[in-house]
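Support request from a user on the community tier.

User writes: "When I paste my structure tokens into the form, the page sometimes reloads and wipes my input. The last time it worked, I copied everything first. Here is what I submitted, just in case something in the input itself triggers the reload:"
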């Protein structure tokens, strides 16, 4: 069941237009007018899948299932093929889906947002803050990206848009002390949700990872189970690179979920299959635009419908 109330299928469909053109429309074109689905057509289908960012392994799996299903079918109609492909894609996207931790189990519920620079962390925090606020939660955000001069200001704008509180310190302050102060205030003043923004770039990668660890340790001093959720934000445009980032961050921190941003405006939405296929971490949210309502809870069924329904 979805927690947030902002799901909008048409918006999802609009956002995924380019991905739909690349994947579903090409499949439709290949199958249109084919009275019988022969091996050449299956090979063409395989080519489309392989070239559509969903990854070689995923494409192979789907084609294998198409072949198996066709063997048992008398009627090799195109509707069947599309259905087989769709079902298989939904199945792949649902594989890692675990039930998330219920935010009402902890008070405050602390969410740490991590990811490389420009992935969409701050924007995602603004959107999440808005969604939690809308369902009646008291929300505070912590500006623990103290590395970049404009970072505070950016988060401040989002906090303002969402109508939530913010803790910020001057540039160059210790990020973990900002996180500490935010969680402390949340505990003292009865907040439900804490969202901690972090830097995407420090002097080097080791620095960044050490900093994240320190933030986690410091938060845990106040609340032993916190952070209750660590979300890795990945830019949906980056395809293969997103997989590498997920690997890197998984090494240093326990990720509870992924947020794939910027799925609007990219034809590479198929990369989500590779990410899900290679990670044990479920996709929790997807970003389909730059405004405050453009974050949706990830629903494999809806995602595939949005890609295949013209
Ligand atoms: N189209 C689109 N743009 C997005 C989405 N999410 C974020 N962006 C844009 O991506 C850019 C970077 O977003 P930020 O939220 O600043 O990214 P960040 O990870 O906080 O970046 P750093 O603070 O530099 O590490 C901004 O221009 C956002 O508007 C999305 O879902 N769709
Ligand atoms: Mg940021």
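"...and here is what came back when it finally went through:"
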């Amino acid at each position: 069941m979805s927690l947030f109330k902002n799901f909008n299928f048409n918006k999802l469909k609009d956002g995924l237009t380019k991905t739909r053109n690349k994947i579903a429309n090409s499949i439709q074109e290949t199958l249109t007018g084919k009275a019988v689905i022969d091996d050449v057509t299956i090979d063409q289908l395989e080519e489309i899948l392989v070239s559509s960012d969903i990854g070689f392994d995923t494409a192979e799996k789907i084609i294998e299932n198409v072949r198996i299903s066709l063997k048992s079918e008398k009627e090799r109609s195109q509707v069947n093929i599309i259905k087989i492909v769709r079902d298989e894609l939904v199945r792949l996207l649902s594989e890692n889906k675990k039930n998330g931790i219920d935010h009402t189990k902890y008070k405050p519920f602390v969410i740490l947002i991590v990811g490389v620079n420009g992935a969409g962390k701050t924007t995602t925090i603004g959107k999440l803050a808005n969604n939690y606020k809308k369902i009646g939660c008291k929300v505070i955000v912590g500006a623990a990206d103290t590395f970049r001069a404009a970072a505070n200001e950016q988060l401040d704008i989002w906090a303002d848009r969402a109508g939530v509180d913010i803790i910020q310190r001057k540039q160059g302050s210790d990020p973990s002390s900002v996180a500490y102060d935010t969680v402390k205030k949340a505990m003292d003043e009865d907040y439900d949700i804490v969202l901690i923004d972090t830097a995407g770039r420090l002097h080097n990668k080791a620095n960044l990872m050490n900093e994240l660890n320190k933030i986690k340790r410091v938060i845990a001093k106040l609340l032993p189970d916190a952070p209750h959720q660590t979300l890795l934000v990945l830019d949906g445009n980056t395809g293969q690179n997103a997989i590498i980032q997920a690997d890197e961050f998984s090494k240093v921190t326990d990720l509870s979920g992924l947020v794939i941003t910027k799925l609007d405006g990219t034809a590479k939405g198929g990369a989500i299959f590779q990410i899900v296929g290679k990670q044990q971490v479920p996709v929790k949210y997807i970003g389909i635009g730059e405004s405050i309502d453009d974050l949706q809870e990830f629903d494999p069924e809806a995602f595939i419908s949005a890609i295949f329904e013209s």
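Agent notes: The reload is a front-end session timeout and is unrelated to the input. The longest strand covers residues 229-235. Residues 115, 117-123, 145, 148, 151, 200, 233, 261-262, 264-265, 287-290, 294 surround guanosine-5'-triphosphate (ligand 1) (CB under 6 Å). Escalated to web team.
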